TrEMBL record:
GO terms for cellular component: cytoplasm. It is an enzyme of class 2 (transferase). Keywords: ATP-binding, Kinase, Nucleotide-binding, Transferase. The lineage of its organism: Bacteria, Bacillati, Bacillota, Bacilli, Bacillales. It comes from Pontibacillus chungwhensis BH030062. InterPro entries: ATPase_NBD, ROK, ROK_cs, ROK_glcA. This is Glucokinase.
Amino acid sequence: MEQKNVIGIDIGGTTVKLAFVTYNGEIIHKWEIPTVSEGGPEKMVQDIATSIANEQRKLELSFDDFKGIGVGAPGYISLQEGIVYEAVNIGGWRDVPLSKLLGEATGYNVRIENDANLAALGEYWKGAGDKADNLLAYTLGTGVGGGIIANGELLHGANGTVAELGHMTVIAEGGRNCNCGRTGCLETEASATGIVRSAIDGIEKGRTTSLKAIYDENGKVSAKDVFEAAAEGDKLAEDVLDHVTTVLGLAISNMAIAINPSKIVIGGGVSKAGDQLLDPLRTKFDTYTLQRTGAAVEFVIASLGNDAGVIGAAYLALH
């Protein structure tokens, strides 16, 4: 039987990433278009459909060269119904029948999933996850997302909130406000945003730090600045990263005890710190988890970068 290509799409707050992908996970062609929320989901779907047709024409590929489309979108998703229940960072999308709309616009069968879940699936299939049957994936970026693969299957849960790993409570009282409406979520502490907030808190409290000069000059600091300062022995930066690895190690250890993974994949912009993040994180994880649970686990940095979402979406379309 002929093996057809598929189309992987990763819808983000600023760009929509698209790729033509072979049945065995090789990217033939990839590109991006702006995420334009004005005009509602119907306009965005039409933009995506037009872009796909244009790229197919440029590459002299036909409609029949493709089997279907997989799509990752942020927020709460119903895989079965093909509905985006809520995606706050895309113009406040609510109850959008994305599978139906995009299917009608393109003529293809369309399957949708949460974007962080698909990044996990991409790493599982073609990346650092290396097809581990039991895998935890964390994406540490502006927020904290993730995905869970158990017995070789991506977990979905009852109503679209499985693997909202950034919304595990790690500060029981007095935590920072989170966009989800609660306080003390992992996302408020261990994301790039949380790292920056912790550093600025220290600066504003008058702690001695090399980060103050950066803050005074630019009006801001970055998570990268904090990691670089910590590498130079800056005490505030070291304390910030100690806090990050403590809360993250605790959260991951609790999840590991629940699903007993063999791989824990750390991705997102914060993961670019590499061993500077991974080594202390592993130490904290081992402090909190069961010894036997920890013995089964390998920590790895995600390897697919921005391609993880479209490759995971392709896997979704194929399977």
